[in-house]
Design brief:
The structure holds two protein chains of two kinds.
Chain A: H1 5-44, H2 49-63, H3 67-77, H4 87-112, H5 116-124, H6 129-159, H7 171-182, H8 186-214
Helix pairs in contact in A: 1-4, 1-6, 1-7, 1-8, 2-4, 3-4, 4-6, 5-6, 6-8, 7-8
Chain B: E1 5-14, E2 17-27, E3 32-36, H1 43-50, E4 58-63, E5 66-67, E6 70-73, E7 76-79, H2 82-89, E8 92-95, H3 107-118, H4 123-136, H5 152-164, E9 170-174, H6 182-198, E10 202-206, H7 210-216, E11 219-224, E12 227-232, H8 234-239, H9 244-255
Parallel strand pairs in B: 3-10, 3-11, 8-9, 9-10
Antiparallel strand pairs in B: 1-2, 1-4, 4-5, 6-7, 11-12
Classes of the chains: A mainly alpha, B alpha/beta.
Chain lengths: 220, 260
């Protein structure tokens, strides 16, 4: 078995197409997880148990089942109920929904860390519930959570090969089809690892920077 | 003049603990009322109920003649909705023991926030008004500072300016000097004096500064176990308390080295 540079050059454009899809799925999945997670965290805090309990159960259910099963469900089972999604959309929803249950915990911790006196001062200032969230609570809760959220997004990035199971043409899927077609595994699979390593390392450097920038809890 | 606050038989429990027990009293407009008593006697809870931070279990509260926790609708009374509470709260300001400034906003923004968000005051006007208030509390030069850069006394003075920014009729002061180092207490009390000289605001103070309550208040309520034990002029309460429990409380306070 020999490393063939000519083969590497030949397959590189196809793999880069896959990298693009991988990055796209991660970015969209992260955005969805960030937004849905915040929604889950806020709904779980609701004083109305008819809201808080089912949302809490749903979050525990999603977190307690494997992402791969959820992806199969979204892509292969939902069409039976008349909902047909493209592979990428199904993949983004799967990633976003699954990781939202983790980011929701990060948000919950961050929101709980805002002193109770801040809620009371907001009420004494006669702010509405919406203004209290957007002007007082979230601006204090979000910055310290940014490193923890970014950590989940790096974890999500490394789980994107699961999307190959629902035919998304991301990096792993492209590499596997090249490999299967040419009966050569060493170059494509090594390159997949290399791509993930490089992007992860860059992300970790960015994460360290975020931790320095936002990680310290401001003195109250 | 009709009372600005009418408290009529209110009760409040936290679990099995009855904090307020069938409590009634009125406050006249412009009155400066000191609420004193041992901790857990319910005096802070009264302020928190007036600020709608806690609800009541039973009884009635009227502020400027309007029910606080009920509203008129279809000819009858119903539990107040958020709109009604919003209108009622606009008349009341509160200063907290632990300041509760917004740490992510500078001093000026702490003071302008409420008028800009709740009254749609234009920024320029809100800032002019805020600078006047900061002038009154002696902190014009700190307008651009962040709360974390201020001393406790300065934070509390900003908190007073913030509460005044909505031009409330009633100000609630909840142990506003209790968290301060002793040398910083006076600068905050001086602001209260200045406020009482320059406005005719109604003030309710929960305080352990007995000397200050004696000089400052028009009237003193002594609380114990959720009830008013004694209600009178400061001189009567501090110099000549009639009730045994008031006497015992004041004796303890004096033994602890407080000036009365």
């Amino acid at each position: 078995m020999e490393w063939d540079w000519a083969f590497v050059i030949e397959i590189l454009p196809t793999l880069i197409e896959g990298v693009k899809i991988t990055i796209l799925a991660t970015l969209l999945g992260s955005a969805l997880a960030a937004i849905l997670g915040l929604g889950l965290a806020i709904l779980r805090r609701s004083k109305n148990p008819l809201m808080a309990k089912p949302v809490g159960f749903l979050a525990d259910f999603i977190r307690g089942t494997p992402l791969l099963v959820q992806l199969y469900f979204i892509f292969y089972v939902l069409p039976d109920a008349g909902i047909t999604l493209s592979p990428l959309v199904a993949g983004v929803i799967g990633l976003g929904l699954h990781y939202a249950t983790y980011t929701a915990e990060v948000y919950r911790g961050g929101i709980d860390n805002v002193a109770r006196g801040q809620w009371e001062a907001a009420r004494a200032c006669n702010l509405s519930a919406f203004q209290t969230w957007t002007r007082i609570i979230l601006p204090q809760a979000l910055p310290p959570m940014i490193p923890a959220l970014a950590n989940y997004f790096i974890a999500m990035f490394k789980e994107t090969p699961l999307l190959s199971a629902i035919t998304v043409l991301e990096l792993m899927n492209q590499a596997r089809s090249i490999a299967n077609f040419n009966y050569r595994y060493i170059e494509p699979i090594t390159l997949v690892g290399a791509f993930f390593l490089v992007i992860s390392l860059v992300s970790v450097i960015a994460l360290r920077w975020l931790e320095r920038r936002y990680g310290r809890i401001e003195e109250r | 003049m009709p009372p600005i606050i009418e408290i009529d038989g209110i009760s409040k429990s936290f679990g099995a603990f009855k904090v307020l027990d069938q409590l009634s009293f009125n406050v006249a407009p412009g009155e400066k009322l000191a609420l004193i008593g041992p901790s857990g006697s319910g005096k802070t809870t009264i302020l928190r109920i007036l600020m709608t931070l806690e609800g009541i279990d039973s009884g009635d509260i009227r502020v400027a003649g309007e029910h606080l926790y009920q509203m008129k609708k279809n000819g009858g009374l119903q539990p107040a909705d958020e709109n009604h509470l919003h209108t009622m709260r606009a008349q009341i300001g509160m200063v907290f023991q632990l300041f509760n400034l917004f740490p992510h906003k500078c001093v000026l923004d702490n003071v302008t926030l409420a008028p800009m968000l709740t009254k749609n005051t234009p920024r320029k006007q809100a800032e002019e008004q805020a600078m006047q208030l900061l002038e009154m509390v002696g902190l014009v030069d700190k307008a651009k500072s962040m709360p974390s850069q201020l001393s406790g006394g300065q934070k509390q003075r900003v908190a007073i300016a913030r509460a005044l920014a909505l031009q409330p009729k009633i100000m609630l002061f909840d142990e506003v000097t209790s968290a301060l180092d002793p040398e910083l207490v006076e600068e905050v009390l001086n602001v209260l004096w200045r406020l009482s000289e320059e406005t005719d605001m109604t003030m309710l103070l929960v305080t352990h500064e007995m000397g200050f309550a004696h000089e400052f208040a028009d009237r003193v309520l002594f609380f114990d176990r959720g009830k008013i034990v004694e209600d009178g002029k400061p001189d009567e309460i501090f110099r000549n308390p009639k009730q045994e429990r008031t006497q015992a409380f004041l004796k303890k306070i004096i033994a602890a080295g407080h000036r009365v």
